[in-house]
């Protein structure tokens, strides 16, 4: 009886209180790679714990004779909840994935038709300065508009392009997609919204870091200012509020090795400890 | 193939009105293309919903669904919408909308780095 209880409590803790606490810990962004792993392991562990709680409750009731009618009812309900959780995730994954890929494919096809390529970058003729990337398995694109090329100094442009290339290299789109899927599947009674917002900030912080590694930090900050300060049309909202967070991390050049190690250890523990201490004994007990 | 599609679409954009396959082929004569190749590309552009065709007697006439500037504007709108907060981030933008505090933080950082 202990296994489903522990896993259930764990699922609740990992789905609500922990993500909420992590999203309030803004210092976490100073170790973005470790923080990204922690968010991913928390999300994965929450899903696994929720599925494990349902399954172990069902097996708890059915594996030991004598099995009463009440046990069968409880087991059936637990099984049903587990199936619903899994189905919501799969459905959300399928819907989000196909919609994203269709939109990206259509966008990329039209970019290729209307943009001129210049040094591996697609250039759109438009008055508004933009820089973005279109991720994709079968071919990604970095797109800028003409004012981005003319207004930015060469080292600023290099920083912008390196930022975008790092998004594509590290497949940040897949991470964003996973958290979008989670948020779509459980929008309310799980703190999936704050997890998703924080992960969106972290991919930008990571790409900023990558751009600073090969280039000049000052060029990146002045490029951010130049592109952020251009009037965007009404309704065209970006990830609001994340910019100040990015700047704060960019200003901080100190290494945070102790924090990185701590966060990595926490990320590993969240996945490993429940598996070793709860799930493996439960599975062993089923034989 | 992509470069050829771009050339055919450019020819349609530069034309005065809907063009026949022969006219498009004539526009691209410097490229030494077979007429059937031009028709294949036109059909492909129709399939992509970038070009619309209308029947004219026994043949078709082709025209871009949107002008060059309108198609660029459509892409820009998509790019700005798709990168917003609480969107699925189909496209990943360098910088989203900036608040006054964001800009102030950027200016302070830039001043400190100088």
Task: Identify the quaternary structure here.
Answer: heterodimer
Strand fraction of chain A: 5-15%
The biggest beta sheet of chain A is recorded as: 4 strands, mixed
- Whole-number total of structural domains of chain A: 1
Helix content of chain B: 40-55%
Which radius of gyration of chain B do the C-alpha atoms yield?
21 Å
Pfam family, one (chain A): Peptidase_M48
Keywords (chain A): Hydrolase, Membrane, Metal-binding, Metalloprotease, Protease, Transmembrane, Transmembrane helix, Zinc
Family (chain A): Belongs to the peptidase M48 family.
Protein name (chain A): M56 family metallopeptidase
Can you offer a commentary on this structure?
The complex is a heterodimer of chains A (287) and B (114). Chain A is mostly helical and 287 residues long. Helices cover 73% and strands 6% of the residues of chain A. In chain A, strands 1-2-4-3 form a four-stranded mixed sheet, with helices on both faces. Chain A is elongated, with a radius of gyration of 23 Å. Chain B is of the alpha+beta class. Chain B folds into two domains: 2-64, Orthogonal Bundle (Arc Repressor Mutant, subunit A); 68-113, no CATH class. Chain B contains five helices and four strands, in the order αβααββαβα. Chain B has helices at 2-14, 21-27, 35-47, 68-82, 100-113; strands spanning 19-20, 51-56, 59-64, 92-93. In chain B, strands 1-3-2 form a three-stranded antiparallel sheet. The mean pLDDT of chain B is 87. The interface between A and B is large, with 64 and 47 residues. Chain A: Residues 124-183 form the Peptidase M48 domain. Chain A: This is M56 family metallopeptidase. Chain A: The chain crosses the membrane at residues 6-22, 34-57, 63-91, 260-284. Chain A: Belongs to the peptidase M48 family.
Write the layout of secondary structure elements.
The complex is a heterodimer of chains A (287) and B (114).
Chain A: H1 2-15, H2 17-24, H3 32-63, H4 69-114, E1 116-118, E2 121-124, E3 131-134, E4 141-145, H5 146-151, H6 154-169, H7 172-185, H8 192-214, H9 217-228, H10 242-251, H11 257-285
Parallel strand pairs in A: 2-4
Antiparallel strand pairs in A: 1-2, 3-4
Chain B: H1 2-14, E1 19-20, H2 21-27, H3 35-47, E2 51-56, E3 59-64, H4 68-82, E4 92-93, H5 100-113
Antiparallel strand pairs in B: 1-3, 2-3
Helix pairs in contact in B: 1-3, 2-3
């Amino acid at each position: 009886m202990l296994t489903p209880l522990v896993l259930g409590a764990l699922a609740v803790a990992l789905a609500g209180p922990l993500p909420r606490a992590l999203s309030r810990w803004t210092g976490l962004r100073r170790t973005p790679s470790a923080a990204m792993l922690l968010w991913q392991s928390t999300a994965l562990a929450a899903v696994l714990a929720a599925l494990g709680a349902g399954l172990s409750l069902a097996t708890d009731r059915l594996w030991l004779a004598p099995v009463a009618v009440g046990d069968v009812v409880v087991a059936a309900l637990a099984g049903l909840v587990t199936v619903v959780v899994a189905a919501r995730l799969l459905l959300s994954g399928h819907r989000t994935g196909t919609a994203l890929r269709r939109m990206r494919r259509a966008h990329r096809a039209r970019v290729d038709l209307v943009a001129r390529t210049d040094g591996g970058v697609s250039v759109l003729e438009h008055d508004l300065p933009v820089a973005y990337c279109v991720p994709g398995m079968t071919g990604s694109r970095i797109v800028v508009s003409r004012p981005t090329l003319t207004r930015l100094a060469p080292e600023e442009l290099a920083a912008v392009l390196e930022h975008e290339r790092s998004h594509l290299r590290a497949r940040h789109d897949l991470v964003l997609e996973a958290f979008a899927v989670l948020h779509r599947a459980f929008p309310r009674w799980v703190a999936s919204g704050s997890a998703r917002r924080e992960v969106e900030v972290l991919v930008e912080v990571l790409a900023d870091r990558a751009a600073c590694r090969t280039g000049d930090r000052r060029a990146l900050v002045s490029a951010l200012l130049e592109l952020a300060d251009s009037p965007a049309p009404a309704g065209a909202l970006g990830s609001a509020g994340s910019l100040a967070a990015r700047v704060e991390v960019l200003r901080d050049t100190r290494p945070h090795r102790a924090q990185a190690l701590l966060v990595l250890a926490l990320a590993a523990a969240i996945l490993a400890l429940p598996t070793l201490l709860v799930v493996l004994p439960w599975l062993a007990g089923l034989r | 193939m992509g470069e050829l599609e771009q050339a055919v679409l450019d020819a349609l954009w530069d034309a005065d009105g809907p063009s026949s396959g022969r006219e498009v082929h004539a526009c691209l004569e410097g490229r030494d293309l077979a007429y059937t190749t031009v028709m294949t590309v036109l059909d492909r552009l129709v399939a992509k919903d970038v070009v619309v065709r209308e029947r004219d007697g026994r043949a078709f006439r082709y025209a871009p669904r949107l002008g060059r500037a309108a198609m660029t504007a459509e892409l820009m709108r998509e790019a700005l919408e798709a990168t917003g907060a609480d969107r699925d981030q189909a496209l990943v933008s360098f910088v989203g909308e900036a608040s006054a505090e964001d800009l102030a933080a950027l200016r302070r950082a830039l001043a400190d780095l100088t």
